[in-house]
Amino acid sequence: MEENGRKGIDPKSGFCKSNSIFYSKRKPLPLPPNNTLDVTTFISSRAHRGTIAFVDAATGHHVTYAHLWRAVDSVAASLSDMGIRKGNVVLLLSPNSIYFPVVCLAVMSLGAIITTTNPLNTTREIAKQIADSKPILAFTIPSLLPKITAADPSLPIVLIDAAVPPEGAKVVTTLDEMMKKEPSSRRVRERVEQDDTATLLYSSGTTGPSKGVVSSHRNLIAMVQIVLGRFKMEEVETFICTVPMFHIYGLVAFATGLLAAGSTIVILSKFEMHDMLSAIERFGATYLPLVPPILVAMLNNADAINAKYKLRTLHSVLSGGAPLSKEVIEGFVDKYPNVTILQGYGLTESTGVGASTDSLDESRRYGTAGLLSPSTEAMIVDPDSGKSLPVNRDGELWLRGPTIMKGYFSNEEATTSTLDSKGWLRTGDVCYIDDDGFIFIVDRLKELIKYKGYQVPPAELEALLLTHPEILDAAVIPYPDKEAGQYPMAYVVRKAGSNISESQVMDFVAGQVAPYKRIRKVAFISSIPKNPSGKILRKDLIKLATSKL
Questions:
Q1: CA-to-CA distance for 96 and 382, rounded, in angstroms?
Q2: Which of 2, 149, 403, 512 is buried deepest, with most CB atoms within 10 A?
Q3: What is the CATH number of the domain that holds 523?
């Protein structure tokens, strides 16, 4: 047998017995051969028939492709005049907006590095990211300005969506002013290569506190090619952007990838079910990317939704974050018969891609994360022995390919424990690959809690709980929830003489973390179960918590 030019590969599963590697069954990616290329130039030079790039769902204000690329050039020229150079880090703190991609694309076109952060993050969380990534400039909106000035009063700021900078804050200009600048052919143009760093997005990785994921222009270009190949858009499609742009899912789809196809992207600054559905109707949206809890809510309220909204243009829903069950898929197809469900699997460390289902038939492999993305290889590795496993055997999923990150920023220890010397990324997900090459996620080695698509690292919440003077020990686990998927639950050991209550524990955490990280259930226990090396036996606690369900 021979496939992809390699001998000994089973064309059904993609598995090669001689090296225990699973090869993608998708058509390989064409990657640009020229090394001197930034992702912004790559996207802007793609031929397409699209006219409108972005629409603000709230106001109807739209940006044409001609205006978008002019704005990107103007902002890049302004940044260059301000002294922003290749390798400098620029922070962006903003909800979804039509200006979000302008900032990202302008920064990356210079070879500078964009780092984004969640608008829901607390000042403490933002200060931590600023201390780690060391940005020399920040972009934000007026209402979020106090968070940055409190986190780092010395950081120069460009205000988005403001005509006049407020007094007192260290605001150097507004984005509006930058976009008025005539792009100059004389500006400093440094040579940007595909291996240079483009983005620094913060992820919990496989365990522990948040880490900066270093992705190159090559990673993003490969991701764009995968997005284009997956959707095969022959007509100009309209996408609704509900997922956050600061997150890899939103950045992949809306701030970069779909622009290369000439798609129209309708942007909602925050998720509201009514706003999303009325935007589909108003703007004739064809694609709706979302996370499973939103899809489940659409299913549960389908009769009322179909009675109130005309969703006749919608033909595809893209779900990421967790595999969908048979009941959800078939229920959704029954209620929305003209809509195809597509699923995807990816990590920040793999630039948001890794596997996908590209048709309803593929999604009907119930519980699958899909087939490997183009040009991506996988191994299933026994976590105990380190041995590579064949089809239908559970082990940790390892991925390798052009979208895999360069490493974690200024964290060699975390990088070497996640990326091996041959470029394999240990995903922390326990999976198996079946006889037809479909990946199924069985469990998580990594201890992340998935709350409404957001990743919540238990270790971060445990460290915070242990700072409370009345708490002796604590463990945080995922607690199943129909609407959210999972939410954080804490097991707490009180100090002798303490009567700290459930609400006091929850309030203590709520005051210091973003809303999606809040503890929503507390149980008190005499001791936290641990193995001989001191590692929390989370599975025992999950069993205890769910035994009463």
A1: 40
A2: 403
A3: 3.30.300.30
